[in-house]
User: Fold these one by one.
Assistant:
Number 1:
Amino acid sequence: MIGVESILRELEAALAEAQTPEQVELVRVRFLGRKGTITLLGKETDFRSLGPEERRTFGSQLNELKRQAEELIAAALADRRQRAQARAEAEARAKLDLTLPGKDRRLGALHPITLVQMEMEAIFEGMGFMVLTGPEVETEYYNFDALNIPPDHPARDMQDTFWLEGGLILRTHTSANQVRALERYGAPLRAIFPGRCFRYEAMDASHENTFYQLEGLVVDRDISVANLIAVMKALLGEVFQREVKVRLRPGFFPFVEPGFELDQQCPFCQGNGCSVCKHSGWIELIPCGLVHPKVLEAGGVDPHKFSGFAFGMGMTRLAMLKFGIPDIRLFNSGDLRFCEQFPVVL
Ligand code: FA5
């Protein structure tokens, strides 16, 4: 009664032509939509003109036709969707050329002084030190007078100073933090003070007018030179990752008594003599000493109850040693290629 086969063939032909999911949808509407061929078959047939047997046959044929049509359309739709996706992927692949060189994303780099400072801070924090900072523009008092360097003292000439207006100076050393910290925290105290210092100096490969020091100050009961040496050896062992031989020579600084120059056995030649240590086998590394009683007093600490040690290492020079940097002027050159060479190990 219904030309099931011919309708299905017609549907198959239409689906074969439909290349995209959207076109399949148009075919579905054409056959199964509200005014679709198959839908209209049901609507436009005059059932009253059919006998009961014919009605049943017609009904089941129509249902079967719809079922098969839906199946064909669903299969075609799934197939076109899959093809569309494959096409999109192929297009993306064609656009993505894996042989092209990658984009060079510039990562920032840390300045070698920053790297050394971070390392130092971690080492000292491990030994229970606070990390403190103080002003770069300093008063004469904290930079000199409080450190037992009165105005007419010859030691004042040791550090050529940049003078600012109003009796202020650019600090010549991080020792300027010592009395500030004692005033603020009292004793006992364990602190380091990394920071920038300034001296009116002629520049050469090992002298800058702007450089970094790292000051250390320990004040407690019964502090002796033995404590100083132990801390210095622990520090250098961590920095150079092996046991380091050190020696103390007498050194003069008005704010320590006794004062020393701590030398490290040359890490480049193991003390045999090379150009770095000028064939002496030793590198002058850390000026240090026991805190002068007058400094403790200036900080409000009783020198009869407390003693201490202090050291002021040149962090810029340490970075030169650690990274084998031959000329101090590179640090402030502002040349990014310089900074980018140093590995960031955080
Ligand atoms: C001082 O500045 C003392 N305040 C150190 C100190 C602290 C002694 C605590 C005792 C107790 P000195 O002037 O030697 O000392 O400088 C210390 C270090 O700073 C030097 O060993 C050197 O590594 C570094 N330094 C000094 N001047 C310069 C410079 N012009 N360029 C680069 N580094 C410098």
Number 2:
Amino acid sequence: MFQTMSAPNIDTIVSLAKRRGFVFPSSEIYGGLGSAWDYGPLGVELSNNIKQSWWRWLVYERDDIEGIDSSIILNRLVWKYSGHEETFNDPLVDCRDCKFRMRADKIEGKCTNCGSTNLTEPRNFNMMLRTLLGAAAEEDDPFALAYLRPETAQGIFINFLNVQIAMRRKLPFGIAQIGKSFRNEITPGNFILRTREFEQMEMEYFVRPDAEHWKLVDEWVELYVGWFKSLGISGENLQLHEVPKTELAHYSSRTVDIMYRYFPERAEEERQWEELMGIAYRTDFDLRTHSSKATDAEGNRANPDSTEDLSFFDEAAKQRFYPHVIEPAAGVNRTVLAVLMDAYSERTNDKGETRVILKLSPQLAPIKAAILPLAKNKPEIVGMAKAIKRSLQPVLRAVYDDTGGIGKLYARQDEIGTPLCVTVDHQSLEDEAVTVRDRDTWEQERVKVTELAEYLQRRLKAAAPVPPVADTPSLDI
Ligand code: GAP
């Protein structure tokens, strides 16, 4: 019987993640680095599986989205015209008593370290991480200054025309990208929820200026809720948040955040929820600001540095305009954390022992099947188990494990979310059959080795929910 149906708090996942090789504190042998985390053998698989699911869902299964991979370091002018140099700030305050530094908008007038109200006035702190380019760069050389991107989105906007022309696209169409972003967060924390280096899955969906932008935001919200559910996240742990006008980013005229219940241990009124992703209507702000011909309110050229005009000519309507953008922007790391928290469960066996079972959706499970020999001192059984592992590997991620008794081996696979275990026993040598055990029901079935690959694939497919498919416009190129 399952006692716990999702993780009681983030700390439970921090400890499981380290113990079982999902996520380790980074630079730990030198005392760590505050907010940096390293993905271990199982974490990298889980994170890759999430990214693959997203890429398949948007780039492969739809007909209106292209993928790209742009640079992390861009010309500094990108960040001047995107508005990030001027406005990508967080309000910073210092506690005069304990010298602790924190974000003014995340506290209620009190130091989060010592409780003092003796705080400095808030001042703006730009969150872009700086670096210097070139071998001869001096510390304060403004020509050498460059930034590590704080969002992947700008790499998409500056490539809008390249992609549109190369792929002969008409509106509407989208450009998707997965990659690292960097923010010098004032108060990183809560494991992989807020870090200075993180990964984003962003998509910019370009539409006509007269499209129904508000409706499109709602549609993308609904699609993403469906996608998160297909990853195994329960709808009860998801919530929508319409961002108030006063809190919108400088480029957005509407943003809806999809929130996840990362803090179930807190009382309802104490912020149980934190942003998992946001869906923003960015208007034509970005394409216009990077365009050579766009003008400001006084009719002056707004961007004298750009050499390209990122407008679109609609052949049918004989109109030129700057496309508007709907942007669903999700975090890989926050998705990893939400998936782990939601998959966490505990179950007590007949002997009263409590076991952790990670009920990961089969598509996300780092290992799909573990091949376990019942007796590791019997060469024929070991040989048969290893041969089965090798034969399965081309069709699904399988591992061989003989580092404990069968009970321990099952428990270990349950804890890392392996959906199916295959046990090779003495009988297998006679009847060329193995026992397949289900992670969630602990039920066992005998399967012929010759039918095993097909059987496992069928079981995994049947247990994996399918993400929602949107009607996509027909290709007209
Ligand atoms: N291009 C729009 C944009 O970057 P955002 O809401 O600032 O929007 C999108 O970021 C997503 O990136 C967030 O919803 C979150 O999942 C993730 N993210 C942002 N900052 C993060 C951080 N410091 N650590 C981990 N993930 C972060």
Number 3:
Amino acid sequence: MSGQWKKAAALEPVWAALARHRDEIAGRTMRDLFAADPARAGRFTLSFDGLLLDYSKNRLTGRTMALLRDLAAAADLPAWTRRMFAGERINTTENRAVLHVALRNRGNAPIMVDGADVMPEVNAVLARMRDFTARVRDGAWTGATGRRIASVVNIGIGGSDLGPRMAVEALAAFRHERLAFHFVSNVDGAEIARTLAPLDPAETLFVVASKTFATQETMANAATARAWLTAALGDGAVARHFVAVSTNAAEVARFGIDAANMFEFWDWVGGRFSLWSAVGLPIALSIGMDRFEEMLDGAHAMDGHFRDAPPERNLPLTLALVGVWNTNLLGAETQAVLPYDQGLARFPAYLQQAEMESNGKSVGRDGRRVERATAPVLFGEPGTNGQHAFYQLIHQGTRLVPCDFIAPAETHYKTGRHHAMLLANFLAQSEALMLGKTAAEARAELAAEGLTGAALEALVPHRVFGGDRPSNSILVRRLDPRTLGMLIALYEHKIFAQGVIWGINSFDQWGVELGKQLATRILPELEGDGPPGRHDSSTTQLLAQVRAWLKP
Ligand code: F6P
């Protein structure tokens, strides 16, 4: 981040100044703020390369944003950003660099890790992806019986599933007409059984994606898929029907996948940031390598913007600061992500991992307990579905739920007036949340409906909307590979900036380990008939009940 930053102050005085400022403006609603400043929307809107962020419908002022930028400076965000882009090992608990930006470094400027430029390796894998995806798409790559591939099944979980699953769906309008895409992640055998049932082994290609190639769910699903394939086509068919995406060549070979069919990535790619790597293979198979690279281009453009744009015009930074304001100063415990685009149906699930696995931490980089809240609970559904499910709570519940509304202005699907109706709802929701409806307005509305007297008065409190509920609106002209790349990178850098402000390491995920360890211990106890190991009395009781019911 370049020179336009104020000199860093100490962090605690800025938090204290923010708390005082919050109390000072507490009496001013958003209605007041909009009424007082006709230029408010423009003053609190940023755009970059066709992506527009309107954050004016938040309870904040210019002074709020200035203080929040002081906070980012005090947390040393420009220096942390430099370190990340320079390949320093900022993931200290795993001693790793954090370089998803290298995967989309389209300018090819060298990025050094341990004295070696990573770009030649990155480009070599991109070239292999180009060759392979072209052959599958044009039919030159055939299955073992000579038939062309018709179904691609990605087997992976977490970052090795959520990114490609979300992006293939988001970019369905660009999908290759012959290829169908399936995703299997859960260790629940129902998912793979139901996925494979209608497929023809002779036309099916499996992509086994796992950074470690040791993840229980993925290994179990991959073994089941291989058994399904070889039962139909014999062992010799594996080489034509299985490819792997991993950092672990030894385990890929042990599983029986040819080194020639392995697409490599590196330990400096975090799982939840891996869709830019060969983990994106299903995306490239679906939309073609040129369009996959357009997605990388979009993310790269956002990287440059985040790194170089001045703080007042910086979109990821602004999104991060508004989130910090809502979380730490206004006490919000959740964050809703509400895409008004059916293609982005999996975007909230994708962001759940990106945000909650990154910033769901309670210990700081220094090993001490953090003093403030970190990542909110993120959830969401595409509009308008969510409106008929949980928006009631967002409009009239007791909690403050900041919302990110996301929409493309154009649609790929010209179906009557559907898109105009969708966009009308997108616009209406943030307006309704901000304005609310006063008792006087509710009264007038009820009177117009013909109610009078006690019947009218009894309904008034139920028909009042408090309003003053914060939201951001993110608008793109249309959802295409480039804008999707920009959108994802926008959130990645938001998450990074928030992690720096909260003083945590956003790039490890130790919190997922304990459950994995205990499940590994419990599995043989569940399957065996020996005495179970020592557990708390609740777990012992549940285990005994399951064993009793499963006894032949
Ligand atoms: O359980 C958490 C996790 O480690 C995620 O961070 C990761 O994306 C997922 O598991 C899958 O890991 P792998 O790609 O190594 O199979």
Number 4:
Amino acid sequence: MNLACSLLAACERHPELEAFPGIPYGELLPRVRRIAGGLGVDPGERVAVVLDNRLETALLYWAAQWAGAVFVPLSWRLSEDELDYCLGDCGARVVLREADGLPAGPEHSGELDRDEREISLLLYTSGTTGRPKGVPRSHAADRAGGWSQALQHGYGSADRTLGVMPLYHTMGIHSLVAMHLVGGCFVPQARWDAAEALRLIEQQRVTSLYLAPTLFHDLVHHPDLPRRDVSSVRALGYAGAAMTSTLVRRCADVFSPEVFVNHYGSTEIYTFSIGRDQPAKPGCAGRPAVNTRLRLVETGEIWAHLGSDEAFGGYWNRPDADEKAIHDGWYATGDTGHLDEDGDLWIDGRVDDMIISGGENVHPLEVEDVLAAHPGVVEVAVIGVPDERLGQHVTAIVVGEASADELDEHCLASPLARFKRPREYRFVDSLPKSASGKILRRMLRDETRAEA
Ligand code: AMP
């Protein structure tokens, strides 16, 4: 079944339920058909969209699926150069940059017979260096990703999710697809603003939050929180980056969720693993997800099998990237991890972020988790800084009030091995982050190098 057919089935199944606030499934289909008619594209052609997470963007996604076109959502945060590169690379037939005046035409009859293995979506990964890479995703892969999310986050037709993770990122698209597969409601929020998110949660009775850890951090520390009714929220999930144990506990306290999962995945293969019970094992990435096989190779890197129903089939126009990432049917994630005594997976960090200090490996996430538990620390990133004697020394970049001496004492009193303690602390006002909430460690490393 392709995504046009999926949409049709959902609209036939429960026309009375809300697909978006104020728009029942029964009204969604005619709207999508008119927009699809106005796009004027042939099946397989690329429709590029540079819009934030407004309702129109989600409607355009479904219209592209209805027309059998390839939806190419591009970040509004890209520079003109990057945008030009992506538009040229994908060979966009149509480019939409204005939310006003959605295209409208005669109702499109729908490409209902399109092969589900055809491409439905092209996402550009937000690599921190080099050219962005196009990741083509098939109808079948995104449907499988949507179903696995619905199953593993426990969604049903009564669920309403906050649609604020960018629709140009795999989390945003799968939130939309998962909700509409099960007959739930997608509550769009155009751009991140924690006060507005709290207002929407209360007003729209949002039941499920699937966000990057940074966004949870903003929500649970917001001054409006005590005045807002967030009791409708029953399911929490985070992805895109690791969450500290301190933040897991705070989220569990604030929302008392029935479901609280860590969803470890990527654009290339949507879900790698699921840590099912975060309050019980904060930060744990758990077991391979329903469609996935994982293995740890000798270097400690995590590889995922490309036989997953959720997997891509290789990058767009990038044989060089395929060669680097794909080995004998396995996808090299670039992440390192280890298993605990229960056989559960823990992510240690990116292969490139590993610090080697005095010949010992130090994983930034482990040190960050300890530092984040100090009450004076708002946020922290740990990086390796070139050091004549040690090769690299561990440096903590901290947002918060605590002093270097206090933090060092805190580390000494923690289970962290002594040699992993930061040798240097730097205090800043904020940390650079990508749209999916990843701390841009490479940028921090470059900055410290430039200062040295
Ligand atoms: P992206 O394709 O932009 O979603 O990035 C995928 C990468 O994000 C993964 O390879 C990990 O490095 C990181 N990532 C995604 N989810 C998690 C998670 N739950 N915990 C830790 N890192 C994550």
